[in-house]
Structures are given as structure tokens and as C-alpha cells.
Design brief:
about 190 residues; alpha+beta; seven-stranded antiparallel β-sheet; four-stranded mixed β-sheet; about 15% helix; about 30% strand
Length: about 190
Amino acid sequence: APLSRRYRRLAGEPLEEALTKTMLAALKLVDWGQNTRPGVEAAGYITLKQPPPLRAPRDSSYPTPVWPENDPRLVRRRVWDAAAALLSSIPQAAEFEYTMLALSKNFVSSPHTDRNDFSVQYLLSLGDFTGGGELCIEDDPFQVSIITTCNRLAKCDGRFPHWVSKYEGERYSVVFFRSQGTFDAPIRAVHTL
């Protein structure tokens, strides 16, 4: 008889509503016309390194520039700062050393692994979507964890096969990951906070 898979349902750590609203507002300002991962089906997918600080001119006789709300430098700074505030709001995640953020809008995925990760990742999803949108990750060949991440922070290892379940509506995701520095060997797919 064929072996059947087991499924277990989990939920990430709830995030403060004020912080998720700020994050969602920042994500809605992103120019989603770009896709830095062409093999991925999404309305937009970008990765961000920590942006440099916005500085006033060196010569104090020049007025400090005022950037429009949708200026890419300002938008990326807002997204990075909102994401950092979300991660640091969960004490167990606050010390995580990440080097990049992966941001997506309406990401649809088939099972894949994140080969460039050096460690676990923290992730969340936001938006107005129904009927799914959970992170599904293979704990082993016989068990899949289905994790609710909407307005919740989850911790998993993207080097294990994972995907997003089907959904309807507008869904954004934010993934904190490390692609350089200390390498942590993959131990298990899902980690508790």
C-alpha cells in the first residue's frame, strides 16, 4: 500500500496590528513592475539589501531635499524600516542577523528550495486574501507543515522544499534571510518562536 502524507497545521506568532498596517502601506508603494526572480510567478518579486541612509547635502547652504512619497529610495527605506520594526517586535526574533529581504506581491509557487540561504528565515504575509496563502513546508518526505503567516511571523528553513498554498485576493510576503556570513547547517524545516 502506498504511504500517505501527514499534514499538520501551525500558525506563526501574531504581529501587532499597527506594525502590520505600516508594513502593508509601505509595500503598496513599491514599484511591483520589476521582478528580480524571473522564474517565479508573481505580480512582483524583489530582494532588498539594507539601503543606505538618506542624507542631506554636504553643503549646508543647499536645502535638504524633499523626496516624493513614491521615490524608490524613500520607499525602500520605509519597507526596510517597517520590516525591521516587525521582526524586532518579537523578542525571540529580534536578534536574527539577516542580510536581505525578499518581497513579493501575489506570489504563486510550486515546491522549491532557497539554495542561497545561509540559515533559517523569518517570514510573514499581509494583505486581503482568502482561501489559503499558507506556507507549506516538507518536514520530511511523509509530513507537510501548513503554516498560517497572515499578520503572523513564522520561522522556517527555506532550504527544505516549500511553497505557498493557492489563494484568492492580494497577498504580499516579506522574508528575512541571510545569504552571507555565518552558515548554519539545516536541521529541521520548521522552528518554533
